[in-house]
Amino acid sequence: MMRIGIDFTAGIWQGAGIGRYTRELVQAAARAAPDMALHLFYAAGGLDPQSPFARYAHALAATHPNITLRPIPISPRLLTILWQRLRLPLRVEWLIGSLDVVHAPDFVLPPTQARTLLTIHDLTFLVEPACAEPNLRRYLSEAVPRSLRRADLIVVDSKATANDLGKLYGIPSRRIRLLYPAVDQRFRPMPAAETAPLRERLHLPNRFLLFVGTLEPRKNLTRLLQAFALLRADYPDLHLVIAGRRGWLYDEIFATVDRCGLRERVHFLDFVADDDLPALYNLAEAFVYPSLYEGFGFPVLEALACGTPVVTAKVASLPEVAGSAAIMVDPHEVEDIAAGIRAALTDPEPLRADGPPQAATFRWEQTGQALVAIYRELAAKAAAT
Question: What whole-number distance in Å separates Cα of residue 375 and Cα of residue 178?
Answer without folding.
Answer: 14
